[in-house]
Automatic annotation (TrEMBL):
Keywords: Hydrolase, Membrane, Protease, Transmembrane, Transmembrane helix. It is found in: Membrane. InterPro entries: NRho (IPR031976), NRho_sf (IPR038244), Peptidase_S54_rhomboid_dom (IPR022764), Rhomboid-like_sf (IPR035952), Rhomboid_protease_S54 (IPR050925). It is a multi-pass membrane protein. Residues 137-276 form the Peptidase S54 rhomboid domain. Its main location: membrane. Pfam families: NRho, Rhomboid. PANTHER family: PRESENILIN-ASSOCIATED RHOMBOID-LIKE PROTEIN, MITOCHONDRIAL, RHOMBOID PROTEASE. Residues 2-61 form the Rhomboid protease N-terminal domain. This is Rhomboid family intramembrane serine protease.
Amino acid sequence: MIKVLDVPVDQDLSELSRELWARRISHQIRHESDHQEIWLADPAYFPELLQMIRDWQQGNLAQTQVVRSRSSMLTRVIYGWRQWPVTILLLLISVLATAGIHLEVQGALFSGMTFVPVGIQGNQLVSGELSDVLASGEFWRFLTPMFLHFGWLHLVFNSLWVWELGRLIEQQQKSHTLIFVVVLSSLVANFSQYLTGSVLFGGLSGVLYALLGYCWFWDRLAKYPIFHVRKGVFIALMIWLVFCLVGGVSMLGLGDVANAAHIGGLVAGSLLAWLRLLIFGEKQPPSQVV
């Protein structure tokens, strides 16, 4: 996102904001102690927004008539798919996988997506070894645990944060960057958890913490921050990470947590941000009007 305007804290921005949303221009209005800031999500709208600001300041802002049609939902879906295809695909596969493992009877889908093959024999959990996976060539298992969620609350929590952070990366650095971060961090997270002796784990939380680390440390290390993840969001997710580490979730009876995957993902995402800046540098952001 880029900042385009600072205005006094007592100035009413509701008219301008309504018109921006009417024109489907994503933005944020941030309230600071002594002023307000308007931030633009997509730099492509920068020239149009500048003209809107001039018209608004002169009292000549044209009002867009918002017409709701039957095709509006389809239009939003198409727009979202074009803007954030990887984020949407990640969440769609996770929903389908979670629904599938809850509906199936034999457990073949579940066993086919775990890090190593698992099954039940004589009311006991049995599992294969990493060597079995390597010998059989089932290398997809190194990634597919991220799509396994053991409850809908688990899926919803992870999906909400992946939706927010994944879109930021696709918006600012394109889909190929998100694919790279997701694949590398998922490998690190899954192997980290497996090395603790666990074979039954899953979820997007390792990827979630990778995306958080990537966005947060990119903005800390780069000359020009682009993601602007709120400090409160970072602190809240770090508190949750520590709460899980000390066994808080288990004490609440919500099951075990893949803590090694969380930490592995966070470290991987943070290191990827540093390495990408070190190797490729960063692009000059668009000019800002402040």
